[in-house]
Write a structure and sequence with these properties.
- 25% of the residues lie in helices and 31% in strands.
- By secondary structure, the protein is an alpha+beta fold.
- It has a single domain, classed as Peptide Deformylase (Alpha-Beta Complex), CATH 3.90.45.10.
- Strands 1-2-3-6-7 form a 5-stranded antiparallel β-sheet. It has a two-stranded antiparallel sheet with strand order 4-5.
- A hairpin with a 5-residue loop joins strand 6 and strand 7.
- The protein starts with 25 loop residues before the first helix and ends in a 17-residue tail after the last helix.
- 32% of the residues are buried.
- Bound molecules: cobalt (II) ion.
Length: 183
Amino acid sequence: MTADEIRIYGDPVLRKKADPVVIFDDELKETAEGMYMAMLEADGIGLAAPQVNISKAFLVIGMPKEDDEIERLFFANPEMLETGGETSYKEGCLSVPEISEEILRPEWIKLKYQDIEGNEQILETDGLLARVLQHEIDHLNGILFVDRVSPIRKALLKRALKKLAESNGEERPRKKHNLLDQF
Ligand code: CO
C-alpha cells in the first residue's frame, strides 16, 4: 500500500461509519502492515482504515519515541469508556492536506479495544497518544477534525475545503517538517 491510496476530503468513504472488525486473520495483519507503510510514506503518525477506503473499525499509529524509534500500535473496535480534562492541540490530517487547526479535546482517555490477535485490551493514556487516538476514532465514525472547529473557523475554512473536495483527490499530502500534526 502506498501513500497515493490515502483518500482525500470529499471522498464519501471518509463520511461512512466503519463496520466492526470480526475476523482477526493474516489478511488483517497484512492490511495493517500496508497501512503502516503508507502512513510512514506520507509522514503521518496515525491512519484509520477508512482513510484507505476500507470501511472497517481499525487504525494504526506510529508513536515517535526517544532515539528516533517509532512504537507501532494497532487498535480494532476501539470504544471510549471514560475521558477527562480538556486540552488544545494543532491537528492536521493526511486526508485533509494543507489544513491544520487547534482542536479542543479531552486530555486523557480510557478505552477498550481489540489487539491484532483479537484480544480485548484496556488502555488509559494522555498526551499525544490520547490525541491521535481520538482523531482516529473520529475517522471510524465518519467525523473529520475540521468538523470540530468553531463556527468562525469553519466559515474561514469553507473555501479551502470546497476546493479540496472538488480536486477529487488530486491534492495530495505533502512531506511535512513537523510530523506531529498529521494523523
Ligand atoms: Co486524520
